[in-house]
Amino acid sequence: MQYSVKAAFLDRDGVLNKDTGYVGSIADFQWQEGAKEALRILTEWEYTIIIVTNQSGVARGYYTEEAVRRLHHWLSVEAVRCGSRITAVYYCPYLPGAPIKAYDYDSDWRKPNPGMVLQACKDYAVERSRSFLIGDSPRDIECGKRARVDSYLFTGGSLADFVRNILKERKQSGRL
Predict the structure, then answer these.
(1) What pTM did the predictor assign?
(2) Cα separation values, 111 from 1, 45, 91, Å
(3) Which of 18, 22, 53, 176 could bridge across to 12 with cysteines, CB 3.0–4.6 Å?
């Protein structure tokens, strides 16, 4: 298989939406400043957008996997409405020591492990040297490092401005 797709891997909570705790429903979802514009910019620059998100709220019993899937479907529809496209959403519902035993598992998909990113790279023929990850925690950045994908720590402000700066830097360094 030839790997030629460039991807933007995005964490969900704290990047696309404000991290207000365990976000398991559309009603709880609050867009991060500039997030819709950031999605549109990434699409204009021909990045395949892939969300990679830990969802331990499932393992803790705060919401179900079905609720997570509904939220992610809605998020994909909203992306289209703003002129973008989310190609895939990978999530990890597992948590070692979880109160719900079915989810008490140390998964290689749970960040900082790189399982979600590596699976997406296989599924979509992602060329890692042309791709990057944006996260809001050291766990996200470590995931990117383990997957050998450039990683950027988002600490707040406008996600659109943050993405513009990343793309400018990547263009200057020839990593588009």
Answers:
(1) 0.97
(2) 26, 27, 10
(3) 53
Which residues lie below 8 Å from residue 17, measured CB to CB, with a gap of 6+? 23, 29, 30, 31, 32, 35
Over residues 47-60, the mean pLDDT reads 99
- The mean pLDDT of 75-102, rounded to a whole number, is 98
What is the length of the chain?
176
82 labeled part of a ligand binding site: no
Query: 106 among the known binding-site residues?
Result: no
Choices 3.40.50.1000, 2.40.50.100, 3.30.559.10, 2.60.120.260: CATH for 7-172: 3.40.50.1000
Establish whether 92 is an annotated binding residue: yes
Is 143 assigned a ligand-binding role in the annotation? no
| Rounded distance between C-alpha atoms, residue 99 and residue 112, angstroms | 21
In which residue are the tokens 């797709």 written?
5
Is residue 155 within 8 A of residue 136, CB to CB? The reply is yes
Hey, which residues are catalytic here? 11, 13
